[in-house]
Sequence to fold (451 residues):
Amino acid sequence: MSTYDTIVIGAGMSGVTAARMLVDAGRSVLVLEGRDRIGGRMNTDRTAGFPVDLGASWVHGIDDSPLWDLVRALDIPTIEYTVGSFQVGGRPIENFADDGTPMDAAASAQWVDDVELADRLLAEEIASSASGDTYLDVTERALDRSGLSPQRIDEVREFFRHRVEEQCGAWIGDLDAHGLDEDAIDGDEVIFPRGYDELPRRIAAGLDVRLGSTVTEVSRTADGVVVTTADGEQHGARTAVVTVPLGVLKADSIAFTPPLPDEIAGPVDRLGMGVFNKIFLQFPARFWGADSYVLRALGEAGEHWHSWYDVSAVSGIPTLLTFAAGPFGRRMQQLSDDEIAADALGALRRLYPDAAEPTAQWITRWGQDAYSVGSYSHLAVGSTHHDHDQLAGPVDGVLHFAGEATWGDEPATVGAAFYSGHRAAERILGTPVDLSVFAERIRQRERSAAS
Fold:
């Protein structure tokens, strides 16, 4: 049986970050990854000759962001795209009324004012909420106090529901009242014209990463841990970092021996794992506004397919991205690609009756992915923000957990994955890891490899 200082399970952003920092500190590290690629839920498809980010797409808020600092240090190009967090305004958005007709500037301004009013009331209701209150409970209380007309209330209600779906991949009634506490975005947002997975791939360069190695058991022993893979291989180490998504832990895909203590098993059980699927439709020509970031259907017109994001800048070809999330996303992923695309196109044609047939499409099914079993974590009713951080462990001083679900400040983001991998490495090393030095070492290795 091979032995290492640390075994990292999962080669997503958190896994490769922890592994790289440990290796840079002189530790022997093995990374076991069940997929046939690095990146985890950062998955870029380049088969069409340009990148399509099927998983993570955005850096959500670049102000005071160590993740953004890393992107800049590695000279990774980005495109400013500041509507990736379901904002109601702030950038050019084409809003469509309940019947699918375009809203004029005055109506759109009124709509923004309505949401801002409801959000102020919502913040008060969340602050005074009781244990067990759902996000649906507090939004309804806020809307009851708003004084808006029934139709305007319906439109804001629909907006709140879709915001939860996009941010959490969950139904609004399954989210805790505090489930969007961490939703504030500081600064602009950006996307990646070369594909987001460039980041984990560059971090992982030179690491001992074994692809196609699905971990089935992690045993804690007197000497540390023994990790068993699906093909029967066993590897020993003094410590391990488990970075598989929360959905995999909830599915009991990995057996832990002895069983995980309540300090870890409790958060796994209480936290939720949402479904958020992407549908990219590419068109022969643009039929929407040249400066529009988003096309958004309000009320009945957007019951299912409500927001369309113009991501044409990545490929140079007119492309819209929409989402199927929460219960609707789970239903849609049972259908074929053509059925999903046709359903989405039908909704789009309520807004643009002359929309052409798509020339290409990309569709995800993260809820059916055995290596993620969902898209990202959320605060389900009965859980708290503390559950995210408690999930990180360690257990018996040898078993650490990392990934977006283990970072309470901004779960469900690449930033959370990065920071949690950093934290796991520091805990194992017992010493701080300077992120600017971390980035410079990546650049040094790349310069050496190129020379």
In short: DSSP finds 14 helices and 20 strands in the chain. The chain has a mean pLDDT of 95. The two ends are 37 Å apart (CA to CA). The domain at 2-42+196-270+382-450 is CATH 3.50.50.60 (FAD/NAD(P)-binding domain).
